[in-house]
Specification:
The chain is mainly α and 118 residues long. It is built from three helices and four strands; from the N terminus they run E-E-H-E-E-H-H. The chain has one domain.
């Protein structure tokens, strides 16, 4: 299915205060940029167990993702995966690390509040 491409960034799917993520980094990139981009993803209808993802990201978010994806997995001689398969695996690895970092930050903040009030 062909989608009409827009030069404008896809709106965030939820009202998120990305400033709360300031200072956190994953693979050397600011989490607020990586998560901001991931929050823009739109999903197509499932077909044969696959779902198309699409979004138009602001340049700073797209560049941060590209750099993080370049750092997440070294090229392995003899790897038979297609470029698309490798890109998907790298994207997923970055996304997992972003969500883990956010969860760790959330847990640390919750503990700090508990210790302060407890």
């Amino acid at each position: 299915m062909s989608r009409r491409r827009s030069s404008l960034p896809t709106p965030l799917r939820a009202d998120v205060d990305l400033a709360q993520l300031a200072g956190l980094k994953v693979l050397g990139e600011p989490v607020e940029l990586l998560f901001g981009g991931m929050s823009r993803l739109q999903f197509g209808a499932p077909s044969d167990g696959m779902v198309e993802m699409f979004a138009t990201w602001p340049r700073n978010e797209a560049e941060a993702l590209a750099r993080a994806m370049g750092r997440v997995e070294p090229r392995v001689p003899g790897d038979r995966r297609t470029t698309g398969q490798r890109d998907y695996d790298r994207f997923l690895a970055v996304a997992e690390r972003v969500f883990e970092a956010i969860q760790i930050a959330r847990d640390c903040r919750a503990r700090a509040v508990f210790v302060k009030s407890g």
